[in-house]
Design a protein that fits this description.
The complex is a heterodimer of chains A (286) and B (297). Helices cover 76% and strands 1% of the residues of chain A. Chain A is built from ten helices and two strands, in the order ααββαααααααα. In chain A, a hairpin with a 4-residue loop joins β1 and β2 (58-59). In chain A, α8 packs antiparallel against α10 (248-285) and α9 (234-244) packs antiparallel against α10 (248-285). The model of chain A has no long low-confidence stretch (mean pLDDT 90). Chain B is an all-alpha fold and 297 residues long. Chain B has a single domain, classed as MetI-like fold, CATH 1.10.3720.10. Chains A and B meet through α1, α3, α4, α5 and α6 of A and α1, α3, α4, α5 and α6 of B.
Chain lengths: 286, 297
């Protein structure tokens, strides 16, 4: 009798585990389902490649796409070299000392800083102190610093995966440390590093809070002229079309369309990163 | 004649550059803290810190007497965090256990990308989902005027915390040495007993830090709660009330406030409090993980 009860409890636990995994999987597909279902009708050539018209209720989202592209590009100019540099330092040069430990703590904590606090920081430093104003460059730099930890941790993981003997062979030919890294380590780690870059950039493309006070605009009748211009961006456009617009019900189709474009953009980038890593692992196994 | 070794010089310069980019991370983090602190201190010149920390009402735009009590929004953050963790911790840990202990290799190949994609969904899309799908649905089943409330926000931010909790807990479970498990089986324990009495306790510190990191993400989440949690700056009485957490307050008000006023500086006090809370949580999580990963080597 007692044994049976125990078996029942056990069964209940296994079911709970199974149900939880399903909830995790379903939450992704439910979100995707509703956004695809309601947004797909809005997607057209005109929607993607023309400017918004009539209080942004008609026309397209080209300026928003373009703004998101530019600001993501600028963020990458900051985060990619610094991120890879930091990963190389940590994996190839650093010794186990207190400074290295502090750098690692700083990386962990930087990735945990709330996105809105990045917004405050970017506003104080780039908009005010550096006097860049509300601009592409202020927003891009803010996003660049925000996505730095992701690029560092994925790149370091990739560098860690390079076998020690790759370096040793390079040294045996008389290579200096940098030559060994350049010729033996980096080419091998490149797909992994690329994965990190893509994930970092996709994160920058989807963020709203850090660009709120650093450069994004509600509506602009023209495309940004220089890196010191304000810009429109996809995530912010989705935010205003779903909460701030004067006639929310009319704005809903545009909001769905924007949400769909944004989510497809971000998920495609991530899917590409996943495939890249999967392929690399397969090569290694063979 | 001594030949200058260019390769050696190049090597030293590059080592220094790599070191600088490592050092930049420390610089960035301390820069964020110091700048926000410096601006927040301007507010504390005119408003006592006790008003921020011990008063309830946040009403900086009042004509008669502006008040800067943060307790109502701290409670907003607390309610969202509490309920989000109530969903995310059991589901997250259970998913991690399933993936690491039960799932076949094929299923792992399927679910890991899904978790990564879940982590990649922009928070503004989740907020939008809260407005157009989850909100109306909650309003219908609980018979409410509006579904934009603390419950809606909590459910959505728990989705944001899930990938963090799952991946770190799963990693912790995978790090438990095989010998522990085998010893348990040798004593005649079932798979279930081994899991409950051996594997989960050994992985506990990793699981806890995963939950802490998830908690940090929930507290710092801005767009989702701003859009889905209703944004009423009053003291929430139940989970069906709209709430406005700290992050949302900054996002709404900084865009409208006149620069260099008390109200403007006060928003940086909110930012500072947010920074300090998440910093402490992440620091504890990092310490636990570090200790744990290094004791196992």
């Amino acid at each position: 009798m007692k044994l049976k009860f125990k078996k029942f409890i056990e069964l209940f636990w296994w079911l709970f585990l199974f149900a939880s995994v399903n909830v995790t999987i379903l939450s992704l597909f439910v979100i995707l389902y509703f956004i695809i279902k309601n947004g797909i009708n809005k997607i057209s050539f005109e929607f993607l490649f023309s400017a918004p018209k009539k209080g942004m209720l008609e026309g397209g989202i080209f300026p928003q796409l373009f703004g998101t592209f530019l600001v993501t590009l600028i963020s990458g100019l900051v985060s990619v070299p610094l991120g890879i540099g930091c990963a190389i330092y940590l994996n190839e040069y650093s010794k186990e000392n207190i400074l290295t430990r502090i750098i690692r703590i700083a990386i962990r904590n930087l990735s945990g800083v709330p996105s809105i606090v990045f917004g405050l920081f970017g506003f104080l430093l780039f908009v005010q102190i550096f006097n860049f104003g509300m601009s592409l460059i202020s927003a891009g730099l803010t996003l660049g610093i925000m996505t730095l930890p992701i690029i560092i941790s994925v790149s370091e993981e990739a560098l860690k995966g390079v076998p020690i003997y790759y370096r040793e062979i390079a040294y045996s030919f008389g290579a200096t440390k940098w030559q060994a890294i350049k010729t033996a380590v980096l080419p091998y780690a490149l797909p992994g590093i690329l994965t990190g870059i893509i994930i970092g950039l996709s994160r920058a493309a989807g963020e709203t809070a850090p660009i709120l006070f650093t450069g994004v605009a509600f509506y602009l009748p023209y495309l940004p002229k220089s890196i010191f211009s304000q810009f429109m961006a996809l995530p912010y456009h989705l935010y205003i079309m779903s909460t701030q617009h004067h006639s929310l019900s009319k704005a809903r189709p545009v909001a769905y369309g924007t949400a769909l474009v944004l989510i497809i953009l971000v998920l495609m980038l991530n899917l590409y990163a996943i495939i890249l890593r999967y392929k690399k692992r397969k090569i290694k196994l063979e | 004649m001594k030949k200058i070794n260019f390769n050696k010089i190049e090597d030293k310069i590059l080592e220094f550059l790599f070191f600088l980019s490592g050092f930049f991370v420390i610089l960035a983090l301390s820069g964020i803290f110091l700048l926000v602190l410096k601006t927040a201190l301007q507010a504390l010149k005119n408003i006592p810190i006790s008003e921020f920390l011990f008063k309830f009402y946040w009403n900086p735009t009042s004509y008669t007497k502006p008040t800067y009590g943060m307790l109502s929004m701290i409670m907003g953050t607390f309610i969202i965090t509490f309920f989000a963790l109530l969903f995310a911790i059991p589901i997250g840990i259970a998913s991690a256990i399933f993936i690491s202990e039960i799932a076949s290799h094929k299923f792992k190949e399927f679910i890991k990308p899904i978790i990564e994609l879940l982590a990649a969904i922009p928070s503004v899309v989740l907020g939008f989902f809260g407005i157009v799908v989850l909100g109306p649905y909650l309003a219908k089943i609980f018979n409410l005027n509006t579904g934009l409330n603390a419950l809606n926000g909590s459910i959505l931010v728990s989705i944001i915390a899930l990938p963090t909790i799952i991946s770190i807990s799963e990693d912790a479970l995978n790090r438990v040495p095989k010998s522990y498990e085998e010893a348990s089986y040798a004593l005649g324990a079932t798979k279930f007993q081994t899991l409950l009495k051996i594997k989960i306790p050994s992985a506990m510190s990793g699981i806890i830090s995963g939950c802490l990191l998830g908690m940090g993400r929930i507290i710092g989440e801005t767009m989702t709660v701003l859009m889905a949690a209703g944004c009423a700056a009053s003291i929430p009485k139940s989970i069906f009330d709209p709430v406005r957490p700290m992050t949302a307050t900054i996002a709404i008000e900084l865009g409208e406030v006149a620069f260099n006023t008390d109200h403007y500086y006060a928003l940086f006090v909110v930012g500072l409090v947010l920074f300090i809370i998440t910093f402490i949580i992440n620091l504890i999580a990092d310490m636990i993980l570090y200790k744990y990963q290094h004791s196992r080597r």
